[in-house]
Amino acid sequence: MTPENAQRIDSRDKPFPWRCPECGKREVRPATVHHSSQIRHDGRLYSVEVPQLRVPQCEACGEMVFDNDADTQIYDALRKQLSLLPAGQIRQNREQLALSQRELAEHLGVAVETISRWENGVLIQSRAMDRYLRVYFGVPAARAALVEHAAAPSFGTHVEE
Ligand SMILES: [Zn+2]
User: Which domain CATH number covers 136?
Assistant: First the structure.
């Protein structure tokens, strides 16, 4: 889902200015730009516009350096475009039910890492998963059936992937 050919670095807690991966100058600082990209998601290609993307950019050559925060903004825009549950909404719905990420993962039958990545905004749920999440959170009877299914002995023991 990451824009192709984009320069990437792991930016966490690294003070500005950064060294530019393109021109080598230490001129990369936070910027706000109009950004459009093509993102492949769930088997289709989408054009995603973010009018005010906050992204580190090289003041010498203009190269944008995408970090997790920039990715999250782009993915949130795509989620909105596709009417998918926002990352924060998934977390909020789970917390309202007082469930851990692991419990929700077990009820849904997905990996706990998947829940974590959805909630952190670095992975977008498929359209099918989005509907499944809406049913789980919005229909108590469906949720109760899934909880019961997850607790059944034949599903209680499994080999971790
Ligand atoms: Zn540069």
Answer: 1.10.260
